[in-house]
Amino acid sequence: MEFITTRDELRTHYKQASGRAVAKEMRALDRHARTFLAHSPFVLIGSQDAAGNADVTPKGDRPGFVAVLDDATIAIPDRPGNNRLDTFENLIENPAIGLIFLIPGMNETLRINGKARLTADLALRERFAIDGKLPISVLVVSVDACYMHCAKAFMRSSLWKPETWPDRASLPTLGQILAEQIATNQSGEEVDEALRTSYAQTMW
C-alpha cells in the first residue's frame, strides 16, 4: 500500500475547495454562530499534546451550556467525569483546539478552531452553576476560525433517523464490555449498576 505524503500529491486526488467553502470561514462569532451555540447541548473536542498524540472527547450539557464571553471567546464548563484529563493535559502542553458543535436533528454542525486555556476562576464557575453545583473548571477558547459545516456526513450516516438505529439490545452494555476488557471480578450487571449509581450521584 502506498501512502500520500505531500500536499501537492494530495491535491491531485481532490478538487479545489469551492469559493463558498473557503469564504464561509470567520474569525469571530456572528449572530448565527451565537444562535447555534445557544441551542447546542453537545460538543466534540479535539486536542493534541506536545508530541502530537491526539484525543477527541465529548462534552454534553443542557442546550446553551457554552457561554459566549465576547465575539471571539467562548467558555465551556467541565462537569464531573472520569478524571483522566486527557484533553486538559493536552491543552496545557498544546493550546490548539478543534470543536464540533451539534444540535439534535440538525445535519449541519458548527466548527470552531482556536486556542484554549483552563481556569478555576470562581466568578466564572459560578456563572455555570446548576442546582448550586459549580463546574470543576472552565475551558476558555479564543476563536481563530468559525464556520458552519455542510450536512453530507449526517445525511450519509442517517444519524438522526431512529429507523436506521440498531436494536440496542443486540449490543453489549458498557458494564459487560468493561467487565471483559478490565478482567474485573465484577459481573457486567454489577458494573452497569455501579455506573448507574455514579451517573445519578455525579451528573452535575
UniProtKB/TrEMBL annotation:
<dbReference type="InterPro" id="IPR012349">
    <property type="entry name" value="Split_barrel_FMN-bd"/>
</dbReference>
<protein>
    <submittedName>
        <fullName>Pyridoxamine 5'-phosphate oxidase family protein</fullName>
    </submittedName>
</protein>
<dbReference type="InterPro" id="IPR011576">
    <property type="entry name" value="Pyridox_Oxase_N"/>
</dbReference>
<dbReference type="InterPro" id="IPR024029">
    <property type="entry name" value="Pyridox_Oxase_FMN-dep"/>
</dbReference>
<dbReference type="Pfam" id="PF01243">
    <property type="entry name" value="PNPOx_N"/>
</dbReference>
<feature type="domain" description="Pyridoxamine 5'-phosphate oxidase N-terminal">
    <location>
        <begin position="30"/>
        <end position="149"/>
    </location>
</feature>
